[in-house]
Amino acid sequence: MTSFEAADTEETVTCLHLTFYHPGQGEKMMFRCLNFRSREQVRADDTAKFGRDSSVCRYSLMDTRVSRIQFSLQFYRKLHTSEYGFEIKNLSKKTKLTVDQTELGYLNKVDLPWKCIISFGDYQILAEVQEGEAVDYFETHLHLAEAPILQEKCLSCLPSLQPVPENGISPSFFLSQEKSPTEIDENDL
């Protein structure tokens, strides 16, 4: 048996890609302590914390408007499956954290979708999970966005402009109602 045949099977690693944006990033340099050059390994049993306290947070944001510990990400294995995921928890008592459309208060947590936008204050973070098989650790890969993430995402998902009939109800209104229920005021019709 050759050394190639006897070698351990290489496993893929779950990687969390995080793209950061803040409108004042050029002059305030709040991301100067983040490593945008290479991937970092994080032990599976560690909690990845984000905030301004570098003694507690693995990812420090140099901004006095950011909480000492803003939020955390915890890697976990889903019950009765071989799938892995991340849980995000708001650790700021003063600032609400938004994950896509879900607003999290202090100590609220949700499963992180495979692709979502995390926002608080003027900060926008695009989170994308690249699946893997490793159980002992995951990786993070940080990126810096040149333009607002929310603006780019919203512009790409806007429907094309369509004429609105005289009754004031657009046909796309009924299509959007089928996707998810939305409460509206009867005066809006």
TrEMBL record:
Primary location: cytoplasm
Keyword list, A-Z: Cytoplasm, Immunity, Innate immunity
InterPro entries according to UniProt: FHA_dom, SMAD_FHA_dom_sf, TIFA
Localization: Cytoplasm
Cellular component GO terms held in the UniProt record: cytoplasm
Keyword Lyase: no
GO biological process: innate immune response; positive regulation of canonical NF-kappaB signal transduction
Coiled-coil region list: none
Cytoplasm in keyword set: yes
Signal peptide annotation: none
Domain FHA: 49-121
Family the entry assigns: Belongs to the TIFA family.
Protein name: TRAF-interacting protein with FHA domain-containing protein A
